[in-house]
Amino acid sequence: EVQLVESGGGLVQPGGSLRLSCAASGFTFSNFWMSWVRQAPGKGLEWVANIKQDGSRQYYVDSVKGRFTISRDNTGNSLYLQMNSLRAEDTAVYYCARVVGKKIDPGQDDSGWWDWLDPWGQGTLVTVSS
Amino acid sequence: DIQLTQSPSFLSASVGDRVTITCRASQGINNNLAWYQQKPGKAPKVLIYIASTLQSGVPSRFSGSGSGTEFTLTISSLQPEDFATYYCQQLNSYPYTFGQGTKLEIK
């Protein structure tokens, strides 16, 4: 069974740091891009970051650039999100998700991909408050 | 950034009804659109990807359509377990973005 389990959430003061982890099982972790998505209390979903299979490329939403770092350990089948300089507006449930893709044109090496997120972990709550 | 506008934001319907949710993108997204269902206190789960492909295990009463900048999620005959919040997401370019969500409630 494909499974993602987040951990590391908790209460932290503004300006503090926290490291989230996501343990992956049931699939070949090193074959997939991975994502972090967050959801503030009572609000909608916000994509946070993506990381390539080998960790060589990362992408972030503007609001976390320079403060958050996504990383992975393919040997240990784990995804991480290092969060520094935390703000009240970072308070949210953080989900990790696997990026599943299908090549748009299998005959082209440089073809783009259609992607979707599946599955998602159960989430871990981060609360930034004094 | 690509903006996704979902409508309606709230929908009240009855068991057996047919409902449609619309997601409009601010620019073309090459059908790189997914729909998710989220129930209270649970993680989202994918229903539809590549705009119209039904995820394995999802009931056939769910369907997706559209192209270019306008997409729809249709539930052909609402079941009690379908009352939830639905989100569209574009994965064509960074930053990936979500619609604001449609909360489907029992009438």
Describe this structure in words.
The complex is a heterodimer of chains A (130) and B (107). Chain A has 130 residues and is an all-beta fold. Chain A has no helices and eleven strands. Chain A is 0% helix and 53% strand. In chain A, strands 2, 4, 5, 6, 9, 10 and 11 form a seven-stranded mixed beta sheet that branches. In chain A, strands 1-3-8-7 form a four-stranded antiparallel beta sheet, with no helix packed on it. Chain A is globular and about 55 Å long. Chain B is mostly beta strands and 107 residues long. Chain B contains no helices and eleven strands. In chain B, the strands form two sheets. In chain B, strands 2, 4, 5, 6, 9, 10 and 11 form a seven-stranded mixed beta sheet that branches. In chain B, strands 1-3-8-7 form a four-stranded antiparallel beta sheet, with no helix packed on it. In chain B, strand 5 (45-49) and strand 6 form a beta hairpin. The mean pLDDT of chain B is 97. Classes of the chains: A mainly beta (130), B mainly beta (107).
